[in-house]
Design goal:
This protein has one helix and eight strands; from the N terminus they run αββββββββ. The protein is α+β, with helices and mostly antiparallel strands and 138 residues long. It is globular, with a radius of gyration of 19 Å.
Length: 138
């Protein structure tokens, strides 16, 4: 077998492995995490972001208190992973409330009272982070 043919076969094998791994790493809709109610009573989901790392970032709001809340949940609890949940007023230089640590099932809840303001919110598992910025104004 020529050197070029060996490289082509090796590349094809690596691509097949990566394709199989990525297909297994992305949760199906049925496997997606659900909001776990960690913010407490009166909070309703107003937004979310699915994470490729196997979880979801949930933004909730409580009309009676005017507080936002963020929780990051894992699809399948397991060994502790670096996770985070954060909230701040849009444009602020630091997070008003940030929970970043190693967790087995969820990070947060974190809270922010921000009437008549836009917010930045995010969550993550490992290095997969998502959220919204300068959003949900009011």
């Amino acid at each position: 077998m020529h050197q070029r043919s060996k490289r082509t076969v090796a590349r094809a094998g690596v691509l097949a492995l990566l394709a199989g791994a990525s297909a297994m790493a992305v949760p199906t809709t049925a496997q997606a995490a659900s909001y776990n109610g960690a913010c407490g009573s009166g909070y309703s989901t107003i937004d979310h972001r699915d994470l490729n790392s196997g979880g979801t970032v949930w933004l909730t709001y409580n009309r009676s208190t005017g507080k936002n809340c963020v929780v990051t949940t894992r699809n399948n609890p397991g060994p502790a992973l670096l996770m985070l949940a954060g909230l701040k007023k849009a444009g602020a230089s630091t997070w008003a409330d940030l929970d970043e640590n190693y967790y087995t099932s969820y990070a947060g809840p974190v809270y922010l009272y921000a009437p008549n303001s836009c917010i930045d919110w995010e969550g993550g598992i490992g290095d997969n982070i998502s959220g919204g910025f300068d959003s949900h104004c009011g």
